[in-house]
Amino acid sequence: MRLAKTKYTFLFIFIGFLGFAQIHRTDSIGNFYVEKNKLIWQKYYELEDKYILDQRLKQNILTKNLDILHFGNSSITDLIFINGNNLPTYTSKGFKAFVIVDVESNQFRVTIKQITFPDFVENVYYNGMRQNSRTGSLENYVLRNNADINRNNATINVLESFDHIFNAVFVNE
Predict the structure, then answer these.
(1) CB of 101 within 8 A of CB of 57?
(2) Domains (ranges, CATH) in the chain?
(3) Model's pTM, two decimal places?
(4) What are the C-alpha distances in Å from 25 to residues 28, 41, 113, 145, 152?
């Protein structure tokens, strides 16, 4: 009897540890979330017609390199410039991103990651000397060292601006 209780106790503790080990924490703001220290924008949309979606994607600067009808569901964007109030300097030189569109039966998922600012050069002072640095990714500016999103007004403003830009491309009008 005592051996059976010990087995059941061990089994419940083991299952509890297994369940706890499967949970991993992700930080998110809006449609942005952090996965393995990388900032990702992802959203699902309803799909009415695949051909209309393909034509709409080809007419937008963010997605013009995609061809979802011929299995071209991912690409790197051309340099895109954004305008907005109170945006940091690094956003003024334009950005590039890696865009993925996965089409399913009645919906499609858009994933945008690796958002970089290739033309932004940051001045860094090291030992009293000025040096140029191309830190270049949105992750460097909005993520803390522990991979959480830095929740200040500037970061939230930047993420909301990008969220508005990305969402405007894929919303049916």
Answers:
(1) yes
(2) 26-170 (3.30.530)
(3) 0.75
(4) 10, 17, 19, 15, 20
